[in-house]
Amino acid sequence: MTGIRYVRGDATVPSVKGVKVIAHVCNDIGGWGKGFVLALSRRWPEPEAAYRAWHRDRAANDFGLGAVQLVQAERYVWVANMIGQRGVRTGGKGVPVRYEAIGTALDRLAGHALELGASVHMPRIGCGLAGGRWSRVEPLVEERLVRRGIPVTVYDHD
User: Is the whole model's pTM more than 0.85, yes or no?
Assistant: First the structure.
């Protein structure tokens, strides 16, 4: 039995009270322009601007696989830019998802969520452009967030 709540809808519009963190997976090369990030950018400019600055200044910060950047988008809404993808899918080099990095990022996200008293909302992270399998990601979400008492909702877009 899973502790994750599954709903149909838009992960950028969580319909619960309280502080919310919208979590998603980013690549490690500074690319922002396909997939779920487009929905984020339609709603708020801050997550993209922060990600681009984080990547640009990476020599002086923690940008890299497994890192998390928390960006406030509204009073009670934060976006977690999580680096869980090596590059982007090109040719026959295999999928860019990095499960270990997603696990590390979820661990870090858990600390932030507990500090904020927030619930976490996400699409099926790592399973779109990153090419991952939810059967591998779901246990990471369970172990790193749900078992620590953090409410998690996963959104399947209509």
Answer: yes
